[in-house]
Design brief:
By secondary structure, the protein is α/β, with parallel strands linked by helices. Strands 3-2-4-1-5 form a five-stranded parallel beta sheet, with helices on both faces.
């Protein structure tokens, strides 16, 4: 019985459809004896293409012995989703201990398919489906109950951006992505005619981005970023058919940000409107803040972000003040007039001058 000259561990992406392999992988499979550790969609697809696949149950040591004893020039192992690391280790140990170094097989790794960018999003969808069906808390959630978490995660993402810590930002962006997946999964369970799922969300996003970037996906020419924004607004107005330039502005956003957005929408639409006069102190304060936002925008500043940074500086100052050691108490002030002269009445009942520190001082100041 012969022994293999090559043992190839063929890795494939579990996120791509089974059987979607490179041409190099298919050529390799056509000339090899193929094994796998379990019945998988990939093994079934390869069989359907005309190549036999033999399943070898574990443990890894037994699988390694079987591969080394195979009667074939080339042996291919269909690695599982976890990569079958123990099998690779078992093969390496046996090859190192091979009694005839010149005759030991070559151990190779080949990749028959690759994860394209964004492939891990499929894992997010799969995990979300599992949570929705298996976790009591996740099963109970609705769009309304999840809304506070969406807002909280957005604020935490802003905190991460302000911190400048990229690992923190990566984590918080993942939390925001989870909210998108969660809401999409909840919507997919609806029986209404307007139900949707995560593919509908992604598809609508792609269509909108393509439609609103005709200078990228079409033949529209632009002179710069300002014209891109103008085109975006024009396309959006045609899509939404709104009566006012300020329709569609989220009114629940922070007040300074809301004021800036309303001003921006009106200016871009060429609408000039004065703020109605205030009739009470509360309204007057609001008018002053509204004008401050306008001045900030004119200076190219973000009032919301500026106030946020100021608040953070104040929080830092408060923490520093709380951590500072208490100051030494001030010495008690001497309330005795500098030119006072002791009188017999004042000295009545006291020790003779010079017998105490106080008496000595009085004696020195006496005429």
């Amino acid at each position: 019985m012969g022994r293999p000259a090559r043992i190839v561990l063929l890795h494939t992406s579990p996120r791509l459809p089974a059987g979607l392999l490179t041409a190099r992988a298919w050529r390799l499979l056509a000339d090899a004896v193929v094994y796998a550790g379990a019945e998988t969609p990939q093994a079934a697809a390869i069989r359907a293409a005309g190549t036999d696949v033999t399943v070898l149950p574990g443990p890894a040591s037994a699988q390694a012995d079987a591969l080394l004893a195979a009667d074939a020039d080339t042996v291919v192992w269909l690695a599982g989703a976890d990569g079958d690391g123990p099998l690779g280790q078992a093969l390496a140990e046996r090859l190192v201990a091979h009694p005839e170094p010149d005759e030991r097989p070559v151990l190779e790794a080949e990749y028959g398919s690759f994860d394209p960018p964004g492939a891990r999003l499929l894992d997010v969808v799969a995990v979300m489906d599992r949570l929705r069906t298996s976790c009591p808390w996740d099963r109970e959630q609705t769009h309304a109950s999840l809304a506070p978490y969406l807002l909280e995660e957005a604020y935490e993402t802003i905190d991460a951006i302000d911190s400048g810590e990229r690992a923190h930002l990566r984590e918080e962006l993942g939390d925001v992505l989870f909210q998108v997946a969660f809401h999409s999964r909840v919507a997919a369970e609806s029986t209404a005619a307007d139900r949707f799922d995560v593919d509908d969300v992604a598809g609508e996003l792609v269509e909108k981005l393509v439609r609103r970037h005709p200078h990228v996906f079409g033949d529209v020419a632009v002179s710069g970023a300002d014209e891109v924004v103008a085109n975006w607004d024009e396309i959006k107005r045609a899509e939404k058919a709104r009566d006012s330039s300020v329709d569609g502005v989220p009114l629940a956003q922070p007040a300074l940000q809301l004021a800036a957005k309303l001003q921006s929408r009106a200016e871009r639409a060429g609408v000039e409107a004065a703020l109605p006069p205030a009739t009470d102190p509360d309204g007057e304060l609001g008018s002053q803040l509204f004008e401050l936002v306008r001045r900030s925008r004119a200076a190219g500043l973000d009032a919301e972000a500026a106030l946020r940074r100021a608040a953070l500086r104040y929080a830092t100052a408060v923490r520093a003040a709380e951590a500072a050691p208490p100051a030494d108490p001030e010495p008690a002030a001497d309330t005795t007039p500098a030119d006072s002269t002791p009188t017999p009445a004042a000295d009545a009942g006291t020790e003779p001058a010079g017998t105490t520190e106080a008496g000595s001082a009085d004696a020195r100041h006496a005429p």
